[in-house]
């Protein structure tokens, strides 16, 4: 089995590994690493969008697994909430992945930009948001809302992907009342489940480029180790600042995509 896809040189591989490392770091702190990793895969000659999405999931599953373990050991998120949420997110991601080959991303991008702008404005005008954990719901209602978040964002991750961790963090902070650090800890576990859910669809249809995905996965692990430890050491304020930076980049990137597609 060849390491490089057809017509791909070692220079492109180096850029992909750098993108995978950076994506692992960003994902570990606040999510949004797919903003780097998925577009970089689309630059590979001859790679289809479906192959890029599938290979991105393979690389990401290693990084999210690494950061999930690190956060679970040091932050100790409540498994009573996160396990059901992750299970439903996995199913949602499988469903989204099954539609990824049929629905154009352009349909969803304007909606996502509006959602991100709303998230950024709320986070900016409410500096206390996510500073400390102050749960808004308890018991069954808390679990139901967490499960709904998992289902919706899991479906999105299987269908498109970039920004999934970011959406998970802001949903856990804004809707459930977690601080940014604990929201990030839960988001990593759920994001790992969504990656697995998508792969359960992509692997049987042969969409994954295994050698490339595994090599990028190793780089993703290194980035995740560094990012998760930095987030835990620096706390919620650091995560909040980086969160706003990632949201801003996501808005610009998706806005440019919409403009290019509209004027093409």
Automatic annotation (TrEMBL):
The keyword Transmembrane applies. Keywords: Cell membrane, Membrane, Transmembrane, Transmembrane helix, Transport. Its main location: membrane. The keyword Metal-binding does not apply. It is a multi-pass membrane protein. It is found in: Cell membrane. Pfam families: TauE. PANTHER family: MEMBRANE TRANSPORTER PROTEIN YFCA-RELATED, TRANSMEMBRANE PROTEIN YFCA. Belongs to the 4-toluene sulfonate uptake permease (TSUP) (TC 2.A.102) family. This is Probable membrane transporter protein.
